[in-house]
Structures are given as structure tokens and as C-alpha cells.
Amino acid sequence: MSDPLRIAIAGLGNVGSGTAQLIQQNADLLGKRTGRTLKITSISARDKSKDRGFSTSGMNWFDDPVVMARDNDSDVLVELIGGEDGIAKEVCEEALKSGKHVVTANKALLAVNGESLVSLADSNNLILNYEAAVAGGIPIVKAIREGLAGNNINRIYGILNGTCNYILTEMRLQRRAFDDVLLEAQKLGYAEAEPSMDVDGIDTSQKLALLSSLAFGTKINFSAVYTEGIRRISLLDIDYAEELGFRIKLLGSAQRIGAGIEQRVYPCMVDQSFPIAHVDGAYNAVVVIGDFVGNTMFQGLGAGAGPTASAVVADLIDISHKRQAPTLGVTLNSLISTSEIEIGEHIGPYYVRLMVADRPGVIADITAAFRDENVSIESMIQRSRSTTEAVPVILNLHDCKESEIQRSLSKISTLNTVIEQPTMIRIETLS
Ligand code: HSE
Hints:
Number of strands: 17
Oligomer: single chain
Bound molecules: L-homoserine
Largest sheet: 11 strands, mixed
Distance between the termini: 48 Å
CATH superfamily of the largest domain: Dihydrodipicolinate Reductase, domain 2
């Protein structure tokens, strides 16, 4: 057997502990797969005394992960601290400057600082791997970077956040309230330390920015991702979606439009005839459409200790074999810049729910506002009747430009018969 691959782990939360458990439990298998021992030599976390479900015997403890990153006792540093800068960035930079390969699950760090870290890794001839940063246990980085490397990719879309998918699924199936399900997702270890990263769509945007760069060979452009989260999704809309043959999913989607790349994250109506509509719970799914391969879909758990540890260890195995594709799919200097496509330019069909006073003339005012912006209505539902309470009016709108819808809705929201702010949910056109 060759020398052991010596591993330092910075951060022993859910994923860090899961990674150590996997390395210890599957040691024989990993030995056969790599021809060497994967040995955790060093660990660092906030609390030394906590039992994390793995043996720390023979491991060096570091209170300061930056000191660990500089220490000579490891070949690879696994960064599982999280955060787009601060200590996580410092740890990765120090490790690369000290001649260590780096494995990270940190999408926030890479979405903002990815190119500078890749540059540092490249200039030191080191590997920077990040399979666990996108879609948890699904090997999507490897799939795009290696398995589908022969294709021009036209579009990539997916469910990239387990917490949001779990919340939307539980709301629909168990009729539970949003906050209640979020608490449970936190207990199950799916949610980020700061749950707004999940529910406001930011985690999905960070992952999409990375996938987009990999898929299209473009610079990572996180700030160009249009982002909305799921807080505004109500049980009423979930029910209407079902009735109309849709399901509401938080999707991240990136596609080439002319010379630009449209990158967007929002909850949307997905036609139930598409497999992705049926990906439920903490599962993620990614659809990649290539010019020769056609349509491919990858599905698996996107969050939690086990699936994320699985991705971290796959990266370690690659490092052990010195298997190295360009970190972002192409060399850093061949990444291209593309223009951002504003959400107002987006074209598609829309679902709109209005809560209105049930009085004569209301519908005429509403349809006039759409007519004035050239927006065409495909169907409308108004069912309940109440002289005292607002009643829902559901409209399905034909393909139109988002800016036209937005102008129509701002006029509609000023009508005194429209009781609440209109709810607009995009109907996603998939292939
Ligand atoms: N909070 C993330 C999720 C974890 O729910 O998908 C994986 O990035």
C-alpha cells in the first residue's frame, strides 16, 4: 500500500462528523478503492469535548483551524466551516499556500471567491474539489465536468435546496405550517445555520452560480442570479397548483439566451407531467440538457450528514488518485464573461391569485389592466362567493414578458376591490 492520505477536517458539525464516521466505518472499502489508507490526522472545531459519533484517537486537535491549515501533518484540508468569507476563506487560502489540496462543501465561499481560490490552487498545482457544495449527495459536479464534458449544454435546472423542497412537500402533503416544517428541517440537519439562506433562495442561487459556470464555461456570476425564496407560498396556492395540474417547486434554472445566460431562482409551477415535479422531501434533482446527450436527470438527497459526507469522500478519493479535471470545467483563463439577463426580460406563462371583493365590475377592471399591457388570459377561476370576505380569483396568463405582468399587477394592486397584494407565481416551461 502507498502512504496514507493524511486528512485534516476543519468544522465538525453534522457534515464534518458524518465525513469522519464514513471514513472510519468504510475504511476497508476506501483502502481497496484507493490502494492506501484515508487517515484523519487533524481536526478542529469549536467544542473539543462533544461526542460526535467517531473515534478521535490518534488525531491532533487544533483550536484554530488556520493553524491546522498551515501544519505539516496533513495532505488535504477539508473545509466544513461554512460562510462566504472570514475564517473559511482564510483556512482554504492558508491550506493552499501551505501545499495542501482542499475539499470544501462551501457553496457560499465558492460563489463569491471561487475564481480566486481556483487561481491559488492552480498556481500551486493543487486540487480544489467541491462536489458536496452542490446538491449534496448527487455527483453533479463530476457529471457535468467529466461525464457530460463532450456536450454543449443549453440549459440546466433543478431543485437544489433540500430544506425548501422538504418544506413545500410537507405543506402540501401534511397541510403543515411553513414555520413548523422549517423547525423540523433544522432538527433533521438539512437547514443552514442561518435558515434565511435556504428559504430566501440564496443557497440555491449560490449552487446555481457554480453549476452555471461549470455548464457554460462562464465566469461565476452569483450577483447576476435573480433570486426569490419560498416564504410567500401559501397553502392556498399549493392547492390551486394541484388543481391546475402543477406542483410548486423552488427551481434554479440557467440557460443560454442569445449572447447571455439567464440565471434565476424562484418558486414556480411545474407541470406534473415532468419527473422533477415528483421529487419530494429533502431530495434534490438536477436536469442537464446537452446537445448530444439530450435530457439527463440526476436525483438524490441534497442535504444531511450522510449524503454530503458521501460527496466529500468521493472528492478525497479523487485526490488520492490525483485525478484532476479543470476545477471549473475549463481552465481559468478560458472562462468567458456573459451579459446578465434582467428578470423583466423573462418570457413565460404566469399564475396570478388575487383576493378581491365579490362585487360587479371587479373582473372587468382586472382584465382591463391586463389588456392595457397586452397580456392575454388563458383561464380564470372564481369559485366561492362571499359578501363579507375577499374571494380568490385565479388567472392563468399566456406567455408574456415579465415587465408587462409587473406593470399590470401594480395597476391591479391599486384597485380598491383588490384586497391583498397580488400573488404571482411563474409557470416554468420545461423540456
Ligand atoms: N441547507 C442546504 C439544503 C444544505 O437544505 O439543501 C445543503 O447545501
